[in-house]
Amino acid sequence: MGDGSLVSGAEIARLAGVERSAVSNWRRRHRDFPAPAGGSSVKPLFALAEVETWLRDRGKLRAIPATDRLWQRLRSYGDDRRLVDTLADVAVLLAFVGDTRSAWEDLAVLPDEELAERLPEAVASFVTQGRIPGGSPFADGLRPDQVPTWRLLVEMAREGIPEQIFEDLHSRYVDSTDRAIVVTPLDLATVIAAMVPPVLDGAVFDPSCGTGNLLQALGKKLGIGGSRAGQERDPAVARIAWYRIQWCGVGPEIIRQGDSLRNDQFAGTPGGPDGAAVVVCDPPTGDREWGHDELGYDARWEFGLPPRAEPELAWLQHCYAHIRPGGIAIVAMPIAAAARRSGRRIRGEMLRRGALREVIALPPGLAGGHSLGLHLWVLIRPSTGYIDDDGEISGAIGPATCVRMIDGSRFDRERVREIEGDWWHQYEDEPGVSAKVPVIELLDDDVDLTPARYVQRDEDDLVRAHEEAVNELTPVLGCLSKQQPPRMSRADVPADWPMVSLSELVKAQALDVILNRELPRMRIDLEVGDILVPVLDPSERPVVVRKESTLGLDGPTPDRHLIRCDQTVLDPDFVAGFLHSEQNVRQAVTGTGTFRFDPRRAMIPRLPLAEQRRYGAEFRKLAEFADLLQRTVRVGQDVVRLAQDGLTSGAFVPAPHQEPKGM
């Protein structure tokens, strides 16, 4: 390319279609492998042009997807700080082209030198007229040699889906190890969104929205209900959030730029009727320069002025100030905030006012900025209610007299996903997981809100739970022992099928593909034969909905795409099986190693329906065997965990020692 683009070892592996370990081997074995041109000794970067030449000379270079090439060009513009600005420029240019197509067409015919001068001016005018957050675009100007990159972007947007292209670029930036901003992980955003009750009116607000992951997740959860608003301190990040939530929602979407604590762009009377119905927040942690000195008499501190060393309690009260009576705030908090002595007074006042309803401990690894795990604090503002049409008081919510403590710190990924289905009915009274603690018991000298301190499993409950797990595992092991491992017959000649993409099948009306981001705008019930395709987890197989299905789903979930086949032409099991082929999974991995599956790009064989059904029957058997194995592992882990807890708590004693037979 000759444009100075750099690539990592993972991206070289993608170019060649190999594992990362192969690239490491090439570096050791081949002295002529390109030397690092940047990065560090731990994470070196290589000149893309040199890598392409080296791979091409050895016949290892695959065709480079346009998105990969675009990403490398954008990344060559400067350091990581500049990269987020460039991504914000991508967002606003895509919006400009989409909203003012004729204006772009007039500019596109200009030579690169003239376009480099006039495009920033035209986009800046678009930003001003649209009151788009983020300051002036192309702040460093646009050089003529950079113009081809932006022409490529527009060309790709016209041939594909602009929002999907941006999501791909955004995911690559988020997965960049040296990025300068913290982004709420999708897993955490999905869990928080699952906890939000239906919003029939009023706004959903995130005062520290970052690039918009939480607001996106809420859009998928709420669909047509409620509008969304957010504030973000970083101008470029605010613009990215603005673009991302514009196309995934249907109500009014407002993003404003500014420091939420020092310069609240949505300021109002704390707890007023015009407040938000829901506030969600994954606030920055450990920032002692949050404004303690200048905000000493702020009306938002209903529970008291937060100490300088407790910025998270400042954010918590900021969120609480923005909810209306009866509104709910869900805030991600570091574990230490539940017990630090410096925050004891504020925690106590929050309890006395009956604002805190739940504290949920989540497992480590769910949030990038909380390596030791984190808590979710759920607050609801008490409400006197209103007089309904019958003259009765309705919607009254009194101060909390108990706080529900939920200890999910040991949940595995599958258990966390259970939360996504039906949060308010989960863990209502599960020994060892949840407990309702009277407020008076929490108001001791420590005012410690750590769930593990209050969630304890009674010995009888532990014994009973272990016995139930063993009773569940026994028949599962029996089923597994009767199953024969799948055995396949080797083909005499490797099959060489004609292939067809799902996008072509969509055009032929043989199937419909409904992407997960389109689902909030639609009301769809699942039908037998529908295929649910995971968006972000390559280890998950696509699931075919069956009449006897125990999925317990009324409709598609936000983390899955929906494929609906014309079953007179396509066999759903056949399609699902080939969607999970190694080739299709590999093409879904971005240049930074992230799995983001777009099923429209997937390829499947073009076979007669009868032959499809033969393959589909085999794929179904494999899926059933995999489900049995997974159930065995899950229940077996419960047996082991409960036995471990019993032995370490004194509820169990080691079994009597028995000498092996024949000794």
Automatic annotation (TrEMBL):
Signal peptide: none annotated. One of its GO terms (biological process) is methylation. One of its GO terms (molecular function) is DNA binding. Residues 182-459 form the DNA methylase adenine-specific domain. It comes from the Bacteria. InterPro entries: DNA_methylase_A-5, SAM-dependent_MTases_sf, Type-I_RE_MTase_Subunit, WH-like_DNA-bd_sf. Keywords: Methyltransferase, Transferase. PANTHER family: TYPE I RESTRICTION ENZYME HINDI METHYLASE SUBUNIT, TYPE I RESTRICTION ENZYME HINDVIIP M PROTEIN-RELATED. This is N-6 DNA Methylase. It comes from Actinomadura mexicana.
